[in-house]
Amino acid sequence: MNRNIKINKKVILILLPIAYIFIGNMKAVYSTPLPFQEWVLMLYTLIGLICLLFFCVTRKIYINNPLIILLFFTLFSIIPTFSAYYDYSMYTAIHMIGQSLFWVASFTLSYVIAYKSRNSIQSAKLITILIPIFAILFFNVRQFSAGRGIPDIITAYYNLFLLPFLLTVNKKALKFSLLIIIFTTIILSMKRAGFLAFILALFVYFLIHYKSYIYSKKRLYVIFSGVMTAMLLFLFFDFFIKKYEITILSRLYAVFDDLGSGRYEIWKKTWNMIKCSDFFSLLFGHGFNAVYMDSVPQYSAHTDLLEVIYDYGILGSIFYLCFYLRLIKYYKHLNKIKSEIAAPFASSLCIALVISAFSHLIIYPTYFIFNCIFWGLVTGECDREFVKNERLGLIANGKYNCSSL
What we know:
Layout: H1 9-30, H2 37-58, H3 66-85, H4 90-100, H5 102-116, H6 120-124, H7 130-145, H8 153-160, H9 163-166, H10 172-189, H11 192-209, H12 219-243, H13 248-253, H14 259-275, H15 279-284, H16 290-294, H17 304-336, H18 342-358, H19 368-391
């Protein structure tokens, strides 16, 4: 990172609570949790939702702005979640609403900070310091979980969702070292969806980042670098799985034999739950994490496609889909102006879509937050440049360019 760039202190302020909550979550598996984690999460969500409402009401923003989409999603998700958990207690209902909208608050705070100030993405690169910390905590979780049947999927995915931030780092030695740490964590986690997401995200990154060099004088260097990187990763992977007897490849080959560890049956049962819903529940949903609450035996949908439909209904699903479509439009714009952030942004979308398709995102207010922060910073900075150029009359002249990205 360029030392001449001034660190945006506001970005650090939104990253510190996230780091505190996530480190506490990982420690809680094998040790005592950090104090006041739930209160930090609830306060963070409350501040984020206040900013969301205030920004949408006081600013002249377009109807397809991601914050407007998230505001509608929030409004339509609060009622079914509150209704689902109010019978337990008022505190439980409020707590579950806070968890369900934690990702919305994280995106909002990141967006607003990037929209109002510069150097947000540069400052956010500091979050990569968490990669070795999360790796050490994950190894402790894995050792503690051995033979106890304690799942470590969430702790393994924390590092995976830091990959887009790492891909914005310019120092190649540091980037490759931390990349190996993420790769090791994913391999040890034995999670097929995480492994596929990591490989596809890297492939998408290299495909987009280096495409401009393919027809340039540097094409031989780029091809050589790509081949060497792939060979090093393969040799490391081959050594690692043999030394520690990792069977992730066997699990990938067996995906059709075990039907994704029973996912096919879960998907069928969840779809039947959706079809049996009454009209009101089908339209507005059953509330946050309702698949788990209503299924027998209790399970989650293992895909956001069905989870969102059941939890938030048709209306919530439409706004959730619109949010992703809007993110894809941001990527197209970044790619069009040949922004350096386009490739990491595409990788973040790739990770989210793979994990969302075969695992969970929206029902876990944890690792998904890193993507939300990254998306918020990028889209906020992009919209700030858009407004600035619009005021200068460059939009009408077709000269809009996100120079800071």
